[in-house]
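Internal tracking record. Fields below are filled automatically when a chain is submitted to the structure queue. Please do not edit lines marked as system-generated. If the sequence contains nonstandard residues, flag them in the REMARKS field before resubmitting.
Queue: standard
Priority: normal
Entity type: single polypeptide chain
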Amino acid sequence: MTTATMNKSELMAPPVAETIQTRSMFIGLVGTVAAVAGAFATSQPENFYSAYLTVFIFWLGLSLGCMAILMMYHLVGGAWGTVIRRILEAGMMTLPLMAVLFIPILLNLPKIYPWARPEELAKDPKLADIAHSYLNFNGTMTRAALYFVLWIGMAFLLNRWSTAQDSVEAKDKSTLRFRALSAPGLVIYSLTISFAIIDWVMSLQARWISTIYGLIFVAGEALVAFCFVVVIEHILGKRKPMSGYLKPTEVHDHGKFMLAFVMVWAYFNFSQWLIMWAGNLPEEITWFLRRINNGWGIVAVYLAAFHFAIPFLMLLSRQWKRQTNTLVWIACWLIIMRLVDIWWHIEPASHPSIHVSWMLFAILAGMGGLWMAYFFRNLRSRPLLAVYAPQTLRLWESPHE
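SYSTEM-GENERATED OUTPUT FOLLOWS
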C-alpha cells in the first residue's frame, strides 16, 4: 500500500476483532451476574469489595498505562508508537467505563477502608485525625472526581485530535498540539495516579506511609500497557492490514520497553524495601510484616522471581524480543503477574493469612470482559493507523522488511 492508494477501509480492524468483542461481552455479562450474585449471597462483604478493588486497580492501570505510553510517544516519536497508536488510544478511551465502575467503591467505603468506619476511629485517635483531615468521604469523592475529569479530559482531546487525522485535510497540519498536551499531561498523570493510589490502596493501612508507593504503580501500569499491546499486535499482526506494516524492529522495540519497565518496577520496589528495612521503625515495617508472614511471603518470593528475575533474563534475548510468537508468552505471563502484584498489595490489609476468593475470578471475568468488549469497540471504530498523520505517511514511505 502506498500513500496514493491509502484509504480508511483498507486500514480497518480485521473481522477477528468483532469476534473477540462479542465473546468478551458474553464473558463480561456472565462474570458480572456471578459477581453480583456473590456480593449479595456472601456473609463477608469485605471479601467481595477487596476483590473488586484489586480487579478495578488492575484494569484502571491498563487504561491509564495506555494513555501514558501514548503521551510518551507524542513527545519522543518513533515508528514503535506509530504502529500501536490506535491500540493505545482504544485502551485509553475505556476510562469512562472505569469511572462508572468506581461508583461501587465510592458507595461502600466502610466495607473496604478502616478509616471509613466510626468504630475503628473511636479505637484509634491517630487514625481519626487522619480521617478528619484527609481521608473522609467528601474529600475522597472530590479527589476521585478530579482524577477522572483530568484523565478523561486528556484522553478525549488526544482521541479527538487523532480522529481528525483520518481526514485528508489534516495531511499537512502540525502535530504540535499533541506535544503541547502530552508534556504537562505526563506530569498530571504521574501526580494524580500517585494521589489516587494513596487514596485507594495505601489508605487500606492508613498509618503506613511510603513516598515512592505511587511510582511503583506508575511503572506497573506502563509495563502492563506494553504487554497488552504485544498481545493485541500478535492477534492482529497475522492478518491484514497490520501484517503489512508491523515489522520485527517495532516488535523488538516493544520488547525492550517491557524489559525497561520490568527493571524500573523492580528498582522502585527494592528501594522501598531497602529504606524501610534499614530504618526498621515500627510504623514503617507494619506493611511489610503483613506481606511476608502467614503465607503472603511465598507470594512475595514468587513476585521477585516471576515478575522480575525470570522475565528479565528472558527479555535479554534479542531473538525473543523480535518475534511476537515468543514475546507474547512473556507478555501474557507479566500481565498475570501484574494482577498477582496488585492482589498482594491489597488483600493482606483485610486478610492476615493468605486468602483467595472465588469472587476475585468472577469479578475479573465480569470487569475484564466488559473492558475488552469496550476496547475492541473503540478499536473497530477507526482505521488502525491515523491515515494522514505525518508519522503514518513516513511509515509508508520507509522500506518494509
